[in-house]
Structure formats: structure tokens, C-alpha cells
């Protein structure tokens, strides 16, 4: 019974922001003529800092956050997984150290600081946001892949393959990579939640440039009018909170189900 | 202990050097001519010339690296490209509000998260535990700025109980009401992660043989929980407490921006937006070195609490 309530909460929390993010841009919304910025008399939910309807921004603003987070997570895996796998599979200790040590240094820095610093020298575009988020997530992914692969790469089966003269590259890709896939897939949810958080925070600080109009940018742009037209801030912020809480509860549930079958 | 501390401090020193080198490398990573890139949308020759002179970009990179490291050692971090003030003066001005925010948060964070974690572990499986666990899982990754504006619209605008920003407040300590919402936002994420770890550690410790033995020997339950089980449960949490220093610094940047607190985070965001690279470099070094030192301290505390963990790894 309690589990059912939890499921209902998770589904509701996720359904609204995800539906808006995926279907919102498809809704033909006649924005109508522009009214005054932050017009308190405009029909609910009021107008934004440019005088357009807040509803319009809410419908269009979800896709950017979700797509950027997914793209950044995928990119981080594409780079981090091979590095972690190579570091675990190699029999040369110096190569392992060379691949992994730089990540220890990156992990010593606050991630939002890293995002802001990288943004200070990169041009502000949507791709910058993807690249910066991916590079901040990279060290964690490489470390987790390496930790999982270390175990798999030193099993008796692998030793036997070595003795048979199987090519190390083939052992790593065919045997090791396959056997750690479940562990890494379980971790992917956590990474996606982290990417969502970073994308939203970075977007709030304008890393994606002046063209972007996602929910985080809306919160930032409409902050000045929060007393006149609070919905322009409250709606996108609430959607972001629902999205991250829902994703977190969902992945936590999947993980705990995996641990206790 | 001393051997471990020396080894760990050596790693910390390398990390500090790497932070300084990374901050220096920012200039080298700029595409093309750094002075032109920093001048941005208004490539006025006079502006470019001034930037080049202030950052001595005409000198070769090794000479500038030597200058930068020598400057770090003496506290000279260069001058701002925008205001022309020394970076160290800008940092010194912005330090106090940030220290107050971080200090108040840390003072509240440890007792609250440890209390919640212990409470949940002692009532395992019953409703207080379910409530604490679900809430802490849910709030774990909520972006601070979204939480902050929601709290502002409810408590500052809807109910009118608290001030919405720190604008007009002299010192943060003189007007404690100004601090309530920022500190709440800063606490949200770290409390969740530490409470979860303390709960997990406490459950393990309360099930261990030595607690059962202490109970059989007639040690009062309160002593068992707080003096025997808790130190063991805290060792794994100590590392996470250090990681939350990461979140706390990141959170400080967001919270200062939302609540208009004139601290280091606001200075950093302003400098990033204005492409004021010397200020960005200076603040990056301050934040990076702080994180390295906090991690170092936490590892030493964790080692002191449970030396066998380090031996095992």
C-alpha cells in the first residue's frame, strides 16, 4: 500500500515536467500580442520580462534542460567509460596512474566553480553547456567504471584468456565491458540526476548564452518582477524541483530494487 | 598517524599546486590573442592595450607563470580589468559575508544531519525513518536557485515573514532574519546526503557485535548509541562531509546571487560575466585551496575516528 502511494507520487512528479518538456514545444500556442512586462492584470499566469505570456515560456523551456542533460551524460560516458576500462584492464601500472590521476585533481574542485570557470573562457552557446557539464561528470564516471572493471578484469576467466593468447583489447571490450554493463547502467541514473542539476544551475548563470530560454533562464530573467508577476518565477522553479525530486526518487527505487531482489 | 598525515598532506600540496596551475592555464586556453578575446564585444584598441599591459601579456608564458606563483606566495593576485583594483582587495572585501553564510550553515549542519540520521536509524522502518529517508532522497539534487526562489515567493512574498533579499542589510550578523532563507537553502542538500550516510552507518553499528556486548554488559542505551556506535558510524560520513564542502561552496555562489549578498560568489559571477579574468583566477584559487584543505582535514578526522579503514584500503 505504502509503495503504491510512493509510486503515484513519483509518477505525478515526473509526468508533468516530462510531458511539458517533450510535448510542450509542439503545442501551437498563439502567444498573441505582447503585453506590458510583468503585467499583473494579464490572464493567468501573467507575463514575463519581455511581455510575452509565461505559459509560452513554460511550454518551450523544458526541452532544452532535459535534452542537454541527456546529451551531456551520454557524452561523458562516451569519454569516461573507455578511459576507466583502459585503466582497469591495463597491466601497466604507470598507464593506470597516468589515466586516472588527473581526475583526482579535478575532483578536488567544486563542480559549479569548474562550470563557471570554464564558461568564463568559452563562448556562451548551448554546446558549451553540454561540453562543460560532460567534462565535470567525466571523472566520476571514469572512476566508477574503473572500480567495477578492476574486479571483472582480474577474474580467473580473464587470466585463462590471457594464457590462451587472446588479444588484451578483445578481452577488455568483449569480456570486461560486457560484465560491468549492469553496474554502470545502474549508476547512469545518478549521473543523469547530477547532470540535470548542473545544467539547470549553469543555465541559471547564463552559460548557455542569450539565445537560450529554458526554465532556469526563465527563473533568472523574471526574478526582477517576482513581486508583480510571481508565476513567471514560481512555475519554472516548481517544474525544475518536481523533475529533480521525481528523477531522484525513481532512480533510488530502481537501485534499491536491484540490491534486494 | 604521522606517516599517514604526512602522505595525505603531500597530496594536498600537489592539489594546491594543480589548482594554481589550472587558474594560470585559463589565460593560455583563451582562443587566439588573449587580450582581444577578453575585450569581448567592444574590441577598442585602447581597451586591448590596457588589458595587455595589466596582465603583462607581452611577456613569454614561463615568465608570467613565475610572476603568478611569486604573486600567490606574497598575496598579490594582480588587478581587476574592470575596476583596476587589486584582486586581493576585492577578495578581502567579499570574504566576510561568505564566511558568515558558510560558518552559520556548518554550525547548524552537523548537529542537525547527525541527529536526523541517528533518529532515522533508531526507528528503522517505522514512519519517522520513512519520512526522513524519502525526503532526503528527494531533496538530494534539487537545484539551489529553484528552491531559493520558491522559498522567497512563499515566505517573503506570500506570507511576508522574512526579507526576500539581503539588499539594504548592513552586516549579515546584525540582521539575523536576512540569514534565515539563504541558510535554509544552503542546508538542504548537505543535510540530505549526510543524514543518509549517518543512518546507514548507525544501522550497521547498532547491529554490530560490540554494541550487543555493551548492552549485555549493562551500558545505558544512550551511552551505547552516542559513545559507542556513533563514532564508528561517523567515519564513512566524514569523507562525505568534506564532499559537501564542494556543494556548500557551489551553493554559496548560487545563494549569494539569488539573495544579493555581496560575497565571493557574487564577485565570481560578476567577474565571469564581465570576463574579468584576473578576478576569476584569484577567486578560483581561494575556492580551490579551501576545498583541498577541507578534504585534507576530513580525511585526517576520518583516520583518527577509525584508523583501520585506511589500513584496509
TrEMBL record, chain A:
Alphabetical UniProt keywords: Cell membrane, Membrane, Transmembrane, Transmembrane helix, Transport
GO cellular component, one term: plasma membrane
Membrane topology: Multi-pass membrane protein
Residue stretches making up the ABC transmembrane type-1 domain: 62-251
Subcellular localization, as worded in the UniProt entry: Cell membrane
PROSITE patterns xref list: ABC_TM1 (PS50928)
Top-level taxon: Bacteria
Main localization, broad class: membrane
Pfam families named in the record: BPD_transp_1
Segments traversing the membrane: 65-86, 98-119, 228-251
GO biological process terms, semicolon-separated: transmembrane transport
Family from the record: Belongs to the binding-protein-dependent transport system permease family.
Name of the protein this chain belongs to: ABC transporter permease subunit
Organism lineage: Bacteria, Bacillati, Actinomycetota, Actinomycetes, Glycomycetales
TrEMBL record, chain B:
Protein name listed in UniProt: ABC transporter permease
Transmembrane stretches, start-end: 99-119, 131-157, 177-198, 247-269, 281-303
Membrane topology value: Multi-pass membrane protein
Signal peptide limits: none
Gene3D superfamilies xrefs: MetI-like (1.10.3720.10)
The keyword Cytoplasm is annotated on this UniProt entry: no
Entries under InterPro entries matching the protein: BPD_transp_1_N (IPR045621), MetI-like (IPR000515), MetI-like_sf (IPR035906)
Keywords assigned: Cell membrane, Membrane, Transmembrane, Transmembrane helix, Transport
Provenance organism: Glycomyces paridis
Family named by the database record: Belongs to the binding-protein-dependent transport system permease family.
Entry annotated with the keyword Transport: yes
Cellular localisation: Cell membrane
ABC transmembrane type-1 domain boundaries: 95-302
PANTHER family with a match to the protein in the record: DIPEPTIDE TRANSPORT SYSTEM PERMEASE PROTEIN DPPB-RELATED, PEPTIDE ABC TRANSPORTER PERMEASE PROTEIN
Principal cellular location given in the protein's record: membrane
Gene Ontology CC terms: plasma membrane
GO BP of this protein: transmembrane transport
Amino acid at each position: 500500500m505504502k509503495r503504491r502511494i510512493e509510486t503515484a507520487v513519483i509518477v505525478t512528479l515526473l509526468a508533468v515536467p516530462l510531458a511539458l518538456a517533450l510535448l510542450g514545444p509542439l503545442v501551437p500556442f498563439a502567444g498573441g500580442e505582447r503585453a506590458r512586462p510583468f503585467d499583473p492584470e494579464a490572464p493567468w499566469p501573467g507575463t514575463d520580462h519581455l511581455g510575452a505570456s509565461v505559459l509560452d515560456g513554460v511550454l518551450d523551456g523544458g526541452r532544452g534542460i532535459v535534452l542537454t542533460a541527456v546529451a551531456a551524460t551520454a557524452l561523458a560516458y562516451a569519454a569516461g567509460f573507455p578511459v576507466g576500462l583502459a585503466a582497469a584492464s591495463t597491466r601497466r601500472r604507470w598507464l593506470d596512474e597516468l589515466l586516472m590521476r588527473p581526475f583526482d585533481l579535478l575532483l578536488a574542485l567544486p563542480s559549479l566553480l569548474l562550470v563557471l570557470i570554464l564558461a568564463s573562457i568559452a563562448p556562451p552557446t548551448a554546446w558549451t553547456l553540454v561540453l562543460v557539464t560532460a567534462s565535470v561528470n567525466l571523472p566520476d564516471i571514469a572512476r566508477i567504471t574503473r572500480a567495477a572493471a578492476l574486479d571483472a578484469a582480474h577474474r580467473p576467466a580473464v587470466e585463462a584468456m590471457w594464457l590462451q593468447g587472446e588479444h588484451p583489447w578483445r578481452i577488455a571490450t568483449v569480456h570486461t565491458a560486457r560484465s560491468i554493463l549492469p553496474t554502470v547502467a545502474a549508476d547512469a541514473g545518478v549521473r543523469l540526476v547530477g547532470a540535470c542539476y548542473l545544467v539547470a544551475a549553469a543555465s541559471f548563470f547564463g552559460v548557455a548564452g542569450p539565445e537560450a530560454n529554458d526554465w532556469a533562464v526563465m527563473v533568472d530573467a523574471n526574478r526582477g518582477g517576482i513581486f508583480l508577476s510571481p508565476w513567471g518565477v514560481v512555475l519554472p522553479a516548481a517544474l525544475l524541483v518536481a523533475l529533480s525530486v521525481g528523477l531522484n526518487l525513481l532512480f533510488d527505487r530502481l537501485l534499491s530494487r536491484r540490491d534486494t531482489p | 598517524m604521522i606517516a599517514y598525515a604526512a602522505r595525505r598532506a603531500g597530496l594536498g600540496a600537489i592539489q594546491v599546486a594543480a589548482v594554481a596551475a589550472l587558474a594560470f592555464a585559463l589565460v593560455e586556453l583563451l582562443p587566439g590573442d588573449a587580450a582581444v578575446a577578453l575585450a569581448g564585444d567592444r574590441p577598442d584598441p585602447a581597451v586591448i592595450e590596457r588589458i595587455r599591459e595589466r596582465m603583462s601579456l607581452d611577456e613569454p608564458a614561463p615568465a608570467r607563470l613565475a610572476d603568478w606563483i611569486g604573486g600567490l606566495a606574497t598575496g598579490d593576485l594582480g588587478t581587476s580589468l574592470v575596476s583596476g583594483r587589486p584582486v586581493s582587495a576585492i577578495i578581502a572585501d567579499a570574504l566576510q559575508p561568505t564566511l558568515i553564510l558558510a560558518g552559520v550553515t556548518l554550525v547548524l549542519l552537523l548537529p542537525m544531519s547527525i541527529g536526523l540520521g541517528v533518529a532515522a536509524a533508531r526507528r528503522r522502518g517505522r514512519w519517522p525513518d520513512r519520512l526522513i529517508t524519502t525526503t532526503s532522497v528527494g531533496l538530494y539534487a534539487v537545484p539551489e536557485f529553484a528552491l531559493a526562489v520558491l522559498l522567497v515567493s512563499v515566505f517573503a512574498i506570500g506570507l511576508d515573514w522574512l526579507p526576500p533579499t539581503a539588499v539594504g542589510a548592513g552586516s549579515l550578523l546584525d540582521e539575523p532574519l536576512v540569514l534565515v532563507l539563504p541558510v535554509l537553502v544552503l542546508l538542504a542538500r548537505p543535510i540530505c546526503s549526510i543524514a543518509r550516510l549517518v543512518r546507514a552507518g548507525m544501522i550497521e553499528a547498532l547491529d554490530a557485535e560490540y554494541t550487543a556486548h555493551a548492552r549485555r554488559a549493562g551500558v545505558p542505551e544512550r551511552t551505547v548509541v552516542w559513545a559507542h556506535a556513533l563514532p564508528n558510524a561517523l567515519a564513512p560520513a566524514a569523507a562525505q562531509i568534506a564532499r559537501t564542502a564542494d556543494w556548500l561552496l557551489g551553493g554559496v555562489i548560487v545563494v549569494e546571487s539569488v539573495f544579493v549578498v555581496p560575497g565571493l560568489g557574487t564577485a565570481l559571477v560578476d567577474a565571469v560575466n564581465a570576463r574579468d579574468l584576473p578576478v576569476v583566477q584569484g577567486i578560483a584559487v581561494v575556492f580551490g585551496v579551501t576545498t583541498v584543505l577541507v578534504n585534507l582535514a576530513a580525511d585526517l578526522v576520518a583516520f583518527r575516528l577509525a584508523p583501520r579503514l585506511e589500513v584496509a584500503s
